[in-house]
Write a structure and sequence with these properties.
The chain contains three helices and 49 strands. By secondary structure, the protein is mainly beta. It has a domain of 218 residues: Pectate Lyase C-like, CATH 2.160.20. The strands form two sheets. It has a 25-stranded mixed beta sheet that branches. It has a 24-stranded mixed beta sheet that branches. Strand 46 and strand 47 form a beta hairpin. It is elongated, with a radius of gyration of 28 Å.
Length: 564
């Protein structure tokens, strides 16, 4: 059993679902904490500003014991021989200093660190730890907010009226100094447990990483400034967010658990690039399990287990109509590029998609297993050049695949909002409670060598969609393809390598082409719809014939190519 498992009182491995109540979070909550001695002012690497109740670690590497030795009157309280500490102040790590928080099993002095989080929201009585051009190194430690009156974690992430802070938090902040020099921070968290942290305010979401000054209007800053770190083998739970990044670079998130957070489980946000998100367990969060949003590129999202997020969905402040809130297992949102989503197991997202791509391009979705989502794969708002291969999508609440334009304005994929150049190859779709797939307002979508099996309430439906290609694959003979257009956008679909009969319904604005190969060059073949001959044509020199049908709004018919 690893140390994190011992911290969590013997909970099962990564796949287990564990919810610890506030009273059970900390072993031995009745530990007596000795008040800090009243002594001389701080010396050496530590200083204290009583007006803001802030401790500063200004150089070198230090521990809680070291800080207390240099500043005996600091608002930092050590338990009696228990490895339990309580921080009753803001702690800032600056000027390249390092704060080392290591458990006793890792050779350190702290097994549990309580961050005071008093009711009322008084910033002087709600603690935080910030690396601001510094490093926070956490190994085999349990960190939690702490309400002394309740003798337990602060379970309320709200900000009281007139309050300045909602709940204790921890963060790493990078910035450019007055001379434009990058002052970067990092935070590494290993085999630890961080819970009941954060509230709804910038940089205060619980566990946060931020490159200050980086943004959509300041991409030059983003190119020069990063925030760094890693998270491995740890649990992030009951926070406002499990973890949030902005401007992160080269971080690894591996073997962690993100659960029971108010909003996101893991949220790499703007300009967080070259991240490895591997083998994590994200579940029972209020919104998306894993989301990467706004200009994130070169991500690897691999081997994660993501389930039961948004059940029910979180209702954000000011949301007057939560009925349309969709919560996804994994989401790529706005300007995410060159990213691979591979071999993840995503299940039980009845309010959204297993995997969703929004206003993003050039990504690969492969080898994932998706079960019981409202939509298995959802690509929207201009998403283009998405390659989807070897996924298994089962028991979709509505559609196995769903594309749509939406009302949001795309910022990174052109101006039309129409998804396009999407390819689905070698996937298996096992049943859905509505259409097998639905393509709304899309262009150039290709399905090649896919398998449709199980029970579908209805066959595929395309609406105002052009250039759809169905190339080989297998599907129940009862499946009917419905193609619909309108006066502005004609619907079109092409069936390639046709063998046997395919059932198609075309409205008056739509057309379909049917191709068959392995035929006699120069021989004449006919396209029939039921008993009616639609058209005839000759096979080309390669033995391929392509015949076209224009829709008339009639009922579905079985289309077939045979010798004339």
């Amino acid at each position: 059993m690893n140390h994190l498992s011992r911290l969590l009182h013997g909970r099962a491995g990564r796949g287990a679902t564990t919810t610890l109540c506030a009273g059970a979070l900390l072993a031995g909550t009745a530990v007596a904490l000795s008040p800090a001695a009243q002594a001389a002012a701080c010396t050496g690497q530590v200083r204290y500003a009583s007006s803001t109740n802030t401790l500063y670690l200004t150089s070198g590497t230090n521990t809680l014991s070291g800080i207390l030795q240099l500043c005996p009157s600091a608002p930092l309280v050590k338990g009696t021989g228990s490895g339990v500490w309580q921080l009753n102040a803001t702690l800032v790590v600056q000027n390249g200093a390092t704060l080392r928080l290591h458990g006793t099993a890792a050779g350190g002095d702290v097994d549990t660190l309580r961050l005071r989080s008093a009711a009322g929201g008084d910033p002087l009585r709600v603690s935080s730890i910030t690396a601001q051009y510094g490093t926070i190194d956490i190994d085999q430690v349990k960190i939690t907010s702490w309400d002394d009156e309740k003798n337990g974690p602060d379970t309320d992430p709200g900000v009281p009226s007139g309050g300045g802070r909602g709940r204790a938090f921890i963060r790493a902040l990078s910035y450019l100094d007055a001379n434009g020099v990058a002052r970067e921070s990092r935070m590494d968290i290993k085999d630890s447990d961080l819970g009941y942290l954060g509230y709804y305010a910038a940089e205060s979401y619980g566990v946060s990483y931020k490159a200050r000054g980086c943004g959509i209007e300041t991409q030059d800053v983003c190119a020069r400034l990063k925030v760094r770190g890693s998270q491995t083998g740890s649990r992030f739970h009951h926070g406002y967010m499990g973890t949030y990044t902005f401007g992160a670079y080269g971080m690894t998130f591996e073997g962690n658990e993100y659960d029971n957070n108010v909003t996101y489980g893991l949220d790499p946000h703007d300009d967080s690039d070259h991240l490895k998100i591997i083998g994590n367990h994200a579940h029972h969060n209020g919104t998306h399990g894993i989301i990467c949003s706004q200009r994130c590129n070169d991500l690897e999202i691999v081997g994660n287990t993501v389930h039961h997020n948004g059940v029910p969905p979180h209702v954000p402040p000011g949301d007057d109509d939560p009925t349309d809130n969709q919560v996804h297992g994994i989401m790529l949102h706005r300007g995410v590029t060159d990213t691979v989503v591979r071999n993840n197991h995503v299940y039980d997202h009845p309010n959204g998609a297993g995997i969703a791509v929004f206003d993003s391009s050039g990504n690969t979705v492969t080898g994932n297993r998706i079960e019981r989502a409202r939509y298995g794969l959802r690509y929207s708002v201009g998403s283009t050049d998405i390659v989807s291969t070897d996924n298994t999508v089962s028991d979709s609440g509505q559609y196995g695949v769903f594309t749509y334009k939406g009302s949001d304005v795309p910022a990174y994929t052109g101006t039309t909002g129409r998804p396009g150049r999407l390819t689905f190859t070698g996937n298996t779709f096992n049943g859905s409670k509505s259409d097998a797939f639905r393509l709304n307002d899309a262009d150039d979508v290709t399905f090649r060598d896919n398998t449709f099996t199980g029970t579908f309430a209805a066959g595929p439906l395309t609406q105002r969609t052009t250039g759809t290609v169905i190339d080989a694959g297998t599907a129940p003979s009862s499946l009917t393809y419905r193609v619909r257009g309108d006066a502005d956008t004609a619907g079109s679909i092409a069936f390639r390598n046709l063998s046997g009969t395919v059932s198609v319904q075309l409205d008056p604005y739509s057309s379909a082409t049917f191709s068959a190969g392995g035929l006699t060059p120069g021989a004449t073949y006919k396209l029939t719809a039921g008993s009616r001959t639609v058209t005839t044509g000759k096979a080309n020199a390669s033995g391929v014939v392509t015949l076209r049908a224009q829709g008339d709004g009639g009922p579905a018919a079985g289309y077939r190519i045979s010798p004339a």
